[in-house]
Design goal:
The protein is globular, with a radius of gyration of 21 Å. By secondary structure, it is an alpha/beta fold. The longest helix is centred in the N-terminal third of the chain and has 14 residues, at 20-33. The protein is built from seven helices and six strands. The protein folds into two domains: 8-51, Helicase, Ruva Protein, domain 3 (Orthogonal Bundle), CATH 1.10.8; 74-170 and 183-192, Dna Topoisomerase Vi A Subunit, Chain: A, domain 2.
Length: 198
């Protein structure tokens, strides 16, 4: 049977971005170098596990029925940016460039990996589209086959009559990046997402 230290290390190793060495370093830091931090960390984890859930409207992290973004009356909830995961939403928020609402799918369609429509957070989005409160849907999904398939599927779920405008974020060269080092998908997307230069 594994020791308590080994069990801690194994649990840490299962976290994204932590390999064996990182998990070992973190376990030793908590147990040997900064043991006084351990009770507060355990308490924070238990509290988060008890109180944090998915927002009933958009799927973001929330401590009540609605997340802070959905509950913010200053946000334009008629414009909905659809993202794959919560970290994608966080990236948009850090940019400060968007003041609308969101919808987190918690994945994308991938028949090869057994991910179908029932596995995604689609029911709440379908309800939002059906009640007529959404005027624009911004598809901010990854620029790959699964992302494109998911975008296509979502456009098929729109109410008839063309009342909802659909847009797709542009993909292209990163700021400071050069054409020489860009892959073909990035270059194609950069050309397709071009706009008039003034």
């Amino acid at each position: 049977m594994a020791s308590a230290y080994e069990q801690l290390q194994q649990q840490l190793k299962q976290l994204p971005g932590l390999g064996y060495r990182s998990a070992e370093r973190l376990a030793l830091h908590l147990l040997v170098e900064k043991p006084a931090r351990l009770p507060a960390l355990v308490q924070a984890l238990e509290e988060a596990a008890r109180t944090v859930r998915r927002c009933t409207r958009c799927g973001n992290l929330a401590e009540g029925d609605l997340c802070v973004i959905c509950a913010d009356a200053r946000r334009d909830q008629a414009v909905v940016c659809v993202v794959e995961h919560v970290p994608d939403l966080a990236a948009f928020e850090r940019s400060g460039a968007y003041r609308g609402g969101y919808h987190v799918l918690h994945g994308k369609l991938s028949p090869m990996h057994g991910v179908g429509p029932a596995d995604l957070n689609l029911a709440a989005l379908t309800a939002r589209l059906a009640d007529g409160t959404v005027r624009e849907l911004i598809l901010a999904l990854s620029n790959d086959v699964e992302g494109e398939a998911t975008c296509h599927f979502l456009t098929q779920q729109l109410p008839p009559g063309g009342t909802v405008k659909v847009s797709r974020i542009g993909f292209g060269l990163p700021s400071g990046g050069g054409v020489l080092y860009a892959d073909s998908v990035t270059l194609r997307s950069a050309l397709e997402a071009r706009r008039e230069y003034s």
